[in-house]
TrEMBL record:
Phosphohistidine PTM positions: 92
GO biological processes: phosphoenolpyruvate-dependent sugar phosphotransferase system
CDD domains: PTS_IIA_lac
NAD listed as a keyword: no
Tagged with keyword Transferase: yes
Keywords, ordered alphabetically: Phosphotransferase system, Sugar transport, Transferase, Transport
Protein name: PTS lactose transporter subunit IIA
InterPro entries listed in its UniProt record: PTS_IIA_lac/cel (IPR003188), PTS_IIA_lac/cel_sf (IPR036542)
Name of one Pfam family that matches: PTS_IIA
GO MF entry, a single one: transferase activity
Species of origin: Pseudolactococcus paracarnosus
Length: 132
C-alpha cells in the first residue's frame, strides 16, 4: 500500500512540476513578446515615428498584462494554501516579466520626451521663420 501511495505522490508531483513549467514558459513567451514590442517601439522612436512607437508600446503592455495574469494566478494559489515548489524556471519568468515592465516604463517616458522635444523644436523653428 505504501508503494502505491509513493507512486501516486510521485505522479502528482510530476504533474505539478509540469504544470508549473508550462505556466513559466507561457509567462516567458508573453514577457519576451513584450520586450520584442518594446524594441520595435524604440526603433520607431529612432525613426521619429511616434505613433508607431506608441502602438508598439501598447502591444507590449497587452503582453505584460497576459503574463502578469498568469503569474498572479500562481501566486494566488500559494496564498490560498497550495504550496508551490521553488522553480528556477518560474523565478526566471518572474524576473523577465519584471524587466519587461521596467523597460516599458522607461520606453513610455522616452517616447513622451522625444515627442515633446520634437514638438518644441517645430515650434521654435516656426517662430524663427516668422521672425526672420
Amino acid at each position: 500500500m505504501t508503494d502505491k501511495k509513493n507512486k501516486t505522490d510521485k505522479l502528482d508531483n510530476l504533474a505539478a512540476c509540469d504544470q508549473l513549467n508550462q505556466l513559466s514558459m507561457a509567462i516567458l513567451v508573453h514577457a519576451g513578446n513584450a520586450r520584442a514590442h518594446l524594441v520595435a517601439s524604440l526603433e520607431a522612436l529612432e525613426a521619429l515615428t511616434f505613433q508607431d512607437a506608441q502602438a508598439q508600446l501598447a502591444d507590449a503592455k497587452k503582453e505584460v498584462v497576459i503574463a502578469h495574469g498568469l503569474q498572479t494566478d500562481t501566486l494566488q494559489m500559494e496564498a490560498s494554501g497550495n504550496q508551490i515548489r521553488y522553480s528556477t524556471l518560474f523565478c526566471h519568468a518572474q524576473d523577465t516579466l519584471m524587466t519587461a515592465q521596467s523597460e516599458i516604463l522607461i520606453g513610455e517616458h522616452m517616447v513622451r520626451l522625444f515627442q515633446n522635444l520634437a514638438e518644441n523644436n517645430i515650434q521654435k523653428n516656426t517662430l524663427e521663420s516668422k521672425e526672420g
